[in-house]
Design brief:
The chain is an alpha+beta fold and about 625 residues long. Among the domains are: about 80 residues, Up-down Bundle (Methane Monooxygenase Hydroxylase, Chain G, domain 1); about 70 residues, no CATH class; about 180 residues, SH2 domain (SHC Adaptor Protein, 2-Layer Sandwich). Helices cover about 45% and strands about 10% of the residues. The chain has a 5-stranded antiparallel beta sheet. It has a 3-stranded antiparallel beta sheet with strand order 1-2-3, covered by helices on one side. The protein has a 3-stranded antiparallel beta sheet with strand order 6-8-7. Helix 3 runs antiparallel to helix 4 and helix 12 crosses helix 13. The chain is elongated, with a radius of gyration of 58 Å. The two termini are about 100 Å apart.
């Protein structure tokens, strides 16, 4: 086959020497004179024996008539065959009987109808004439003749199977998997070199390797060769002919190669040399790709950096513009505030700390003026409403419901502006720390009836098992004030307590006002509420080990903490200045020398990103 392919491709190759087994195959497979054919003939004769079979073999092949056969004169039932691996003597006793041992009709019929194509073909095939066992030409034969004709001997079946296998191998490109025994003792970790070498020689592996080594073991078509090694040629044309292949082979300095009509014939060591050359091109291609990708990445990075710097400068300019507008607006408001009737605002001395509150002014803008309570811890400035002297005298201890509601509503707008929404917990806590802590906390401890910022539901749980009249006071959940909760006959009752602008306390719905919460509690321990026929008895004592005492305690009074809470309050309110009184800008709650946390330091410490909304807040100017 090797030489036939060389001749068909028209290349000059050295004559390959190999062991020809053709005569040996003819000894077994030839017709009508062959070992298997003679065995079938003897099996059909009724008087034939194993001895007559051996005598026929000696007659046809003995006396040097065939080089692979020799007569064994010491035993009339034996003969010797010269195989590729050596001489083998066969004893013919039982050959005829074994050859006649055909399968039963049911078993043969089962194999003929097998789902496997190969098995079905083996039991139907008749390679001698290329047909299958059918009814062709059998209509004139008897049943006995038909049965005798269809029955094949073991030798005939073997010959047919071998012929079919050879036909398939010639029509395909088989790959053989050789299984070798490492030793004859069947022991692990034992390798017998001589035994393995003999197996390689007997199966023809060594002979095949020698032939492939002496010949051209690598054969590629022109298209495959150019597609695989086309980069090795300096001529980058799209030609796929033998000329392109010749250029590649000559430029790579290879020898002992040949070009056929359709294929390139190479030695076994040529592909390794070509792969080494291809690896150099691959490494060079990777280097070029790496440098180019780095260039693209650096270019993209510079572009993004330019965009970032531009955006940062725009934000800086925007923040500067906003600060300028804020400063200009504050100056305008300050000038307008100076034109109002009344005393002027005292000058600022940075060493004195906080700016003092301005005195009350007799002006039409009564809703914007403040009553100063500076110098007393815990007190705060409240917007006041001018009332007549007669009303003030009569309302020392009692006020009408309308007067109380107007008084609290005017105070609520100011508290909301300063501390935030009354429905938020933090707003109520800030209100308590700034305004109520000195009045409720006595000598660092809270009264036993005060339970801090607990919920209505929690208060009812604490009073559920108490006696009638047991009470507690807690911070309101929905307003700036307190709630009085106590145990009644059928349920728990809750009354809201407001602090008025005159710093007195009042239970909503009651006309009586009180100077302090202690006075309010003591009053209703001896007097009845207007809508409940009972009195407060004993307090429900608070367990402060379960409450948050720190949230109710004010931070140390310092410029830094005041500025911090002021900015925190601003962040919790809507960013608008329409509801701020004019005096707010003239009297900020922190000195001008304090540092305001504006958008500029936010941007400098990377707390400003592309999702941050920049509120346009009016802030007073500061001196460095």
């Amino acid at each position: 086959m090797e030489m036939a392919e060389y001749e068909s491709e028209g290349i000059m190759a050295e004559t390959l020497t190999f062991t020809d087994n053709q005569s040996f195959l003819e000894l077994f497979m030839a017709k009508p004179v062959g070992i298997l054919s003679l065995l079938d003939d003897e099996s059909r004769l009724p008087k034939a024996t194993d001895q007559t079979f051996v005598e026929k073999l000696n007659y046809h092949f003995g006396s040097n008539k065939h080089e692979c056969y020799s007569i064994n004169r010491n035993n009339k039932y034996s003969f010797t065959i010269h195989h590729y691996a050596g001489k083998v003597s066969y004893c013919a006793l039982g050959f005829l009987e074994k050859n006649r041992d055909t399968l039963s009709d049911s078993v043969v019929d089962m194999f003929k109808h097998s789902r496997d194509d190969l098995i079905r073909l083996l039991f139907h095939g008749n390679p001698s004439d290329g047909t299958t066992n059918s009814n062709k030409g059998l209509q004139h034969r008897t049943a006995a003749e038909k049965d005798a004709r269809n029955r094949l001997t073991v030798g005939a079946q073997y010959r047919n199977s071998l012929q079919i296998l050879m036909d398939r191998m010639c029509a395909s490109h088989p790959v053989f998997m050789r299984c070798l025994k490492p030793n004859q003792q069947k022991q692990a970790h034992l390798f017998d070199d001589a035994f393995v070498r003999a197996q390689l020689r007997y199966c023809g592996m060594l002979e095949t390797t020698r032939i492939r080594k002496e010949g051209y073991s690598v054969r590629l078509s022109f298209d495959e060769f150019v597609q695989k090694y086309g980069l090795l040629s300096k001529n980058h044309s799209s030609d796929l002919s033998s000329i392109k292949c010749r250029h590649i082979l000559e430029e790579t300095n290879l020898t002992n190669w040949q070009l056929g009509k359709t294929k390139v014939f190479l030695k076994y060591y040529h592909p390794e040399h070509l792969e080494k050359l291809m690896n150099k091109y691959r490494q060079a291609a990777l280097l070029i790709q790496r440098i180019f990708r780095g260039h693209i990445a650096r270019k993209q990075f510079k572009k993004l950096k330019t965009i970032f710097i531009t955006s940062k400068n725009e934000v800086n300019q925007f923040c500067t513009h906003i600060e300028n507008l804020n400063s200009q607006l504050v100056r305008t408001l300050t000038q307008l505030n100076d034109k109002l009737p009344g005393k002027t605002v005292p000058a600022i001395n940075p060493e004195d700390g906080l700016r003092p509150r301005p005195p009350a002014r007799e002006s039409s803008l009564n809703s914007s003026s403040h009553v100063s309570n500076t110098g007393t811890p815990g007190k705060y400035s409240l917007p006041t409403t001018k009332v007549s002297s007669s009303t003030t005298t009569n309302s020392t201890n009692t006020l009408t419901s309308n007067q109380l509601m107007v008084d609290y509503d005017s105070l609520l707008s100011y508290l909301t502006l300063k501390y935030g929404s009354p429905g938020e917990r933090e707003s109520c806590l800030r209100w308590f720390r700034d305004t109520q802590y000195p009045y409720v906390c006595q000598k660092g401890t809270f009264p036993s009836w005060f339970h801090g910022n607990i919920t209505r539901h929690r208060g009812e749980e604490l009073l559920a098992k108490q006696s009638i009249g047991c009470f507690l006071v807690r911070l309101s959940e929905s307003r700036f004030g307190f709630s009085l909760s106590f145990r009644a006959e059928d349920r728990c009752r809750h009354y809201m307590i407001n602090q008025l602008k005159n710093l007195k306390y009042n239970v909503i719905g009651e006309a009586k006002v009180h100077k302090s919460l202690d006075e309010l509690i003591e009053y209703y321990r001896t007097h009845e509420l207007s809508n409940w026929n009972g009195r407060l008895t004993e307090p429900c004592k608070a367990d402060w080990s379960q409450y948050d005492h720190e949230s109710l305690t004010p931070i140390q009074n310092s410029v830094k903490n005041q500025a911090y809470h002021h900015i925190k309050n601003i962040s919790t309110r809507p960013h608008t200045t329409s509801t701020l009184p004019i005096s707010y800008y003239a009297n900020p709650p922190f000195p001008y020398s304090s540092k305001l946390y504006t958008t500029r330091p936010m941007m400098m410490n990377n707390s400003l990103n592309n999702t941050t909304k920049l509120p346009i807040a009016i802030v007073p100017p500061f001196t460095k």
